Amino acid sequence: MRVVHIISSYSPGGAETLARDLCIEMKKNGLEIELWALATGKDDAFERKFIKLLNENKVGTYCFLKRPNKDRVRTYLKIRQKIDSFKPDIIHVHGEELAFHVCLATLFRNNIIIQTIHNNRIQYPIIQTLFLKYKLDHFIAISKSVYKILNFRLKIPEKKISLIYNGVPISGNRLIDKNARDKKIYIINIGRLSEQKDQAKLIKSIYILKERFYGRKEFPFEVHIYGVGELKNHLIEKIKEYELEKYIFLKGVDYDVSEKLKKYDLFILSSKWEGFPLSILEAMAKKVVVISTNVGSVSEIIDDQINGILIKNNSAEEIAEKVHFLSNKLFLLNKLAENGYQKVKSKYDIRRCASEHIKLYTKLIK
Fold first, then answer.
1. In what order do the strands lie in the sheet with 248-252?
2. Same domain, 201 and 331
């Protein structure tokens, strides 16, 4: 079976990471796989490492080099040429705008095209309902809530939708013994520095935590925020405003951040909206306790106070309260970490995710 996945760019987003990991796992299952990108990413070093990992696993790559709001006709012609050359049985796109481009490029052709919807917010509902709904052969929903949006709001028939949860690699590496380390509590956040991810709320919560619960006492927390984005300068100003320069650090993009996760105690997701955040699964797979705002499909992953903590009112104050509560409950921390790991291992392993995709591909080809 020949399958091509198409993403917006070789960048550190959740959809891109999932597509990469799926391609690598599908290659192990004997499929002929390529991963194409519509445009270049904004981080050349990250892009090179992203492509290198794919090529090392014998996954083909190609970038159409489309510029924003330009090169549409040229890009459509290139897509058609690449499809004619590779002759995929399945074209799998990750992204709404991307699906529109690919469908236009393949107009009046009989290619089997699948779109994965990675977010609870539909960017182009009119395009989805008036065009993609009919042109696409199948939709993949990454969560129950996304499934309902596709079925009830966009009126896509159930027979054209499959629910396949995201997956992450489950490593057999030994985790470090956090109890044998210094007494500092390390917190991590991973995501684009944007309104959606709302790291400003996280920064405010650390200020509240320090002022309300520690005052002049030693503050045992250190926060690392990984990502780039349009709000970087704003977040730097917020850190200065709250005088938290000694406690909160913007770390930029790190290609190996998923491996570094295991040194952290808490992962905090402060998002205003989400789909099915891969970063939560990656943290739980490394036995890092997750505290998350209750947005999107997060509640399908986290069972509150069983394998993580949900922030009910999505406020900085509640985040601060939960962090302080957990910092004094080592036994509960260990229990949440272990329960989270077991849930990801049993339900969100990338091998299971890839297997479900392959079953769907086989069904559609028949």
1. 248-252, 221-226, 185-190, 266-269, 289-293, 309-311
2. yes
